[in-house]
Amino acid sequence: MPDATKFRRNSSLWLSLIFAVAAVLCNLLFFLRPPAQSAIPWLSLALAVAALLFLALGIKSLFTQPRPIGAKIFASSIALIALLISAGAIFFFYSFRAIPASAEAPQLGQIAPDFNLPNTNGAAVSLDTLFSPTLGTAAPKAVLLIFYRGYW
């Protein structure tokens, strides 16, 4: 006869936590530039939804099977962490889709328009002055421009 003090482990809650963490970590694949890069946000969403499904199964199992109060408290905290991570992944999926596209940003290889902007010392700098030779040196062949796309 089985011992009444033994209880089954709630693997659904642990799978929920694993899927929730995977939903967040899969966004790091953007930096590896895989061929199907546009599918990464959808993969993150699918993993977060799978985490919520396993979370529902785990919570149902948690409160339908008799368990010690300490195990219920620990499992509830795991469920809360998985819920917060999954909800965050879903929230970021939808909120980042609301960022407008940058149609006016220069593309790679495109010739930059002439500009006149202040440098870190406050002096005006134009693209023409960056290509001009300085005291006894040849003019540079290229200038690296870095554009930080802000959304604020």
In short:
Helix content is 48%, strand content 4%.
Write up this protein:
It contains four helices and two strands. The chain has a two-stranded antiparallel sheet with strand order 1-2. Helix 1 (11-25) packs antiparallel against helix 2 and helix 2 (40-64) runs antiparallel to helix 3. The protein is mainly alpha-helical.
SSE blueprint and pairings:
Blueprint (H helix, E strand, L loop, with lengths): L10 H15 L14 H25 L4 H28 L19 E3 L5 E3 H5 L21
Antiparallel strand pairs: 1-2
Helix pairs in contact: 1-2, 1-3, 2-3
For the report, how would you describe the main beta sheet?
2 strands, antiparallel
What's the shape?
rod-shaped
Strand content: under 5%
Report the strand count: 2
What is the average per-residue confidence, as pLDDT, rounded to a whole number?
83
Give the strand order of the largest sheet, numbering strands 1, 2, ... along the chain. 1-2
User: Helix and strand string, N-terminal first?
Assistant: HHHEEH
Helices, by number, come to 4
Radius of gyration: 27 Å
Contiguous uncertain segments of 5+ residues: none
In percent, how helical is the residue content? Answer: 40-55%
Features:
mainly alpha, two-stranded antiparallel ribbon, 2 strands, 4% strand, rod-shaped
